[in-house]
Amino acid sequence: MAQRVVPQPRTSPVVTADAGRPQRQHLWLLLASLPLLLFLVVPLLALVLRISPAVLLANLVDRTVAQAIGLSITTTLTSTLLTLITGTPVAYLLARRRFRGHMLFDTLLDLPMVLPPSVAGIALLIAFGRQGLVGRYLKDAGIEIAFTGVAVVLAQTFVAAPFYVKAAATGFGNIERELEQAAAIDGAGPLRIFRSITLPLVWPALLGGLVMTWARALGEFGATIIFAGNFPGRTQTMPLAIYIGFELDLDVALTLAVLLLASSFVVLFVVKYILSQPARAAWDR
Amino acid sequence: MATLYRPSSLILSIVLATLLVACGGNPSTATSTTAVPAMTAAPATAASAATASTGVTTAAPAMTAAAAATASTGVTTTSGDAAALSVFAAASLTNVFKEIGKNFEAANAGSTVTFNFAGSQQLAQQIGQSAPADVFAAASKATMNTVVKSGQVISGTQRTFARNRLVVIFPKDNPAGLKQLQDLAKPGLKLDLEAKAVPAGQYSLDVLSKASSDPAFGSDFQARVVKNVVSYEDNVRAVLTKVTLGEADAGIVYTTDINGDAASKVGKLDIPDKLNTIASYPIATIKDAKHADLAQKFVSYVLSAEGQMVLAKYGFIPTTGNAGTGALVPLMLEVK
Fold this sequence. Notes:
The complex is a heterodimer.
Chain A: H1 2-5, H2 8-17, H3 20-50, H4 53-60, H5 63-96, H6 102-114, H7 117-128, H8 135-140, H9 149-174, H10 177-185, H11 190-219, H12 222-227, H13 238-248, H14 250-284
Helix pairs in contact in A: 3-14, 4-14, 5-9, 5-11, 5-13, 6-9, 7-9, 9-11, 10-11, 11-14, 13-14
Chain B: H1 2-24, H2 26-59, H3 65-72, E1 83-90, H4 94-107, E2 111-118, H5 120-128, E3 135-137, H6 141-149, E4 159-164, E5 166-171, E6 191-194, H7 199-212, H8 221-227, E7 229-233, H9 236-244, E8 250-254, E9 266-270, E10 279-285, H10 292-303, H11 305-313, E11 317-318, H12 328-335
Helix pairs in contact in B: 2-3, 2-4, 4-11, 5-6
């Protein structure tokens, strides 16, 4: 921060004297960005343009569609909450402690993000299925997970949790330890330090990570169809309904696809906006 | 500076957002489209990679194993004079077509056959979207008709090359204690079926509905069985796998699915003929086939005595007027 503030009076006259150049560079940069930008936007646009609003609204009341939306909302919120509770200690540990096997631990957390979701699905099935490594003992206790909503949540958490853990770990790592140490010297207890120093500084990172996790969970497909199966109203989330719908009723698939697109966009954009607020305020000051 | 870059950062954030959605949303289904059938088709790919590489080495020794690998994934490689025939076939044909493919390659030196095995309805969609297929072999007339309707197969050129029947399977240790078909309605039984869009799924529902009009089952039989369904899978092989793994108590698949490895892992319960739906398998060349001649050759080969013999070996019912035994001679005459 300090470095940026000091040269300010010196650089601003330079910018005004040579205002044309950055403007031109800006234009070139924009032009160079255009191909990828268009490539990403055009297919999504095609999706939105393909279906008329009337058909979209008519399909929304379709039972399969409504069930898929409801199930997607409840399962993704559950898996995101689960990630927050179980992932925060992991992130803190990862950011604040250096221990033997730290890098191994860190790499293990990367795995679910790079593995094909179908691998995750098979792994979950042979671990938690009723004949699985862990599942056979759960079965003895009367718990069967495969083909249930719990399986959907587990599949989502498995593939999506690392997004939060990684973001949160970076957030914890970026906090200057001196701030916390100063508070400790002033006599604040660990809980007080966490509440008044750590949390206010780290929350944007946590929120950003949570939203990434939620978005990934919302799109989860491969692990879900293998581990939880496909049953309308019980395990058929929006991506599964889109996949089956593509073969059965394209309009249903398109409706859900557009909805998924729109809701993801709105949530991600709003969160990005919220996160940019304090930063911008500091910048303008 | 800050104000200057604000609009671009806004654009960037939009792009980033769309990218994120793309990662989390749609393409996830797109990747999975390949991922899920890939699970069931994995042995198929491996095998066709092997056949492809043997075929390639005789035709163009310079080609590397890597090239053979790409050929096996279904990407049409335009390499030299070796013609790679692309056959889209129903998942239930996985084992038998791999053998037929090998025999066909042996009989037609220099040609290789690559298979895309998946649910017929999915293949029909892919062909409708102009996927590079030369031959389509479906597990139902309905899915073949989808392709005829899309114009990719000329109406009337499709031929029925095999028939199949359904069977109830259960894990070897029979956790639900399945003894007769009526037991499918036992409360709490975990039944795995195919989605209605999959031919086997529709056939299964037909069986249940026929049983419901039989007093031995009771009119509410179908409703009670459907209550036990835990999942509607995307193709018949997924049902087989989940029953083999012991995750479902029962499933309905084709009799031909129970061979090789699966035969030792599942028990079966026959469905009597009066209730059973006999599935018919149509085959046709694709109108815009890249290798039209070879495609026609392949179709003829499947319909030939040799092809029909392999189908019979895997439990399929050969297609002649008197479906069943010893009908191979009239078939040879029929195919000219």
